[in-house]
Design brief:
Layout: E1 7-10, H1 16-27, E2 31-34, H2 39-49, E3 53-55, H3 66-77, E4 82-85, H4 100-128, E5 132-136, H5 149-169, E6 175-181, H6 205-208, H7 213-225, E7 230-233, H8 239-249, H9 251-263
Parallel strand pairs: 1-2, 1-4, 2-3, 4-5, 5-6, 6-7
Helix pairs in contact: 1-7, 3-4, 4-5, 8-9
Amino acid sequence: MDVNGRTVWITGASSGIGEGLAKAMRAAGAAVVLSGRRTAELERVAGEIGGETLVLPFEATDYDALPGLVAEAQAWRGGIDMLVNNAGISQRSLGLETGFDVYRRLMEIDFFAPLRLTQLVLPAMVERGVGHLMAISSVAGKAGSPLRTGYCAAKHAVVGYFDALRAEIDRYGIGVTVVTPGFVRTGIAASAVQGDGSTRGHSDDDIDAGIGADEAAAQIMAGLAAGQREIPVGKPGGMEMALLELKRHDPDKVFDLMASAARRL
């Protein structure tokens, strides 16, 4: 999809991949709706990218507020041409040590929130016959990884939901892209929830050695331009990129590798 002149709504746009995509979309000529929880950071991003931007802060799971926010976003320029579901949190805790409420929080933020926003935005896209949905999943949405049981579950659910939805709405001319990032240098590991619901507070070596958010956005934009319906994102030849291929061809090998990694924790 060519985003030049289009209206793109990005959640989780105040940092990381969301901020990178906001910059890339504006550079490609899109008008951008910037959403997230941190108003000051959203305004910073808007100031840096310039041009047509709308700052629309909200809490992803404030479902009662969503209809009004969707109406405001759609009224801004007459409709949303692309919705990028990017907002989310990660996890760093063993399944045996993770509270049920933590699992519910992960599923609410990482799965039900993008599902609900999509439900509210999609009908107008279908009516107009124009639109594209993008969901930022993860390599963890393809391969189960230690310390991320809830995160993996939510990201697998994202892949399943948007893959199935793609099949249903293809007849209306609405596209769906699922993105599976690997290691990207963002604050996702530091802000991950632990088993008791607290914030972890520090990153991972693998995350810190990953590609930058701007490079991740560039890979996503290239995949979008090429019409890829699933876009893997990460360092070329990186371990997590190889893992995606291995999961397709030798899933047992992946299971054994993950079990070995868990034993080293």
